[in-house]
Amino acid sequence: QVQLVESGGGLVQPGGSLRLSCAASGRRFSIYVMAWYRQAPGKQRELVADITTIGMTNYADSVKGRFTISRDNAKNTGYLQMNSLKPEDTAVYSCNLGGLHGYWGQGTQVTVSS
Prior knowledge:
- The structure is a single chain.
- By secondary structure, this protein is mainly β.
- The chain contains no helices and eleven strands.
- Strands 2, 4, 5, 6, 9, 10 and 11 form a seven-stranded mixed β-sheet that branches. It has a four-stranded antiparallel β-sheet with strand order 1-3-8-7, with no helix packed on it.
- Strand 5 and strand 6 form a beta hairpin.
- It is globular.
């Protein structure tokens, strides 16, 4: 079993930046696709970004150009750099490893508000 521990969420003003981290236990981190999802109240969970084992990335249109997903396989850690944050980005953000039926972090709240 892989355990995922997230950090970096919080309250930020519009236009600000946050970097989320996802630290994974286990030696097999590097073999999984990693992704960030988010879910706002009353809305369905949506894919924000994902990154393959070799670094190919994909982004939701709503965050393209503002967010950057990355991973450091040697450190078993994934990241989501979020710039130019908007109130619409407010959601619980969850780290995922290995697809929807894989491993999930606990979720961390990101609130964008003045």
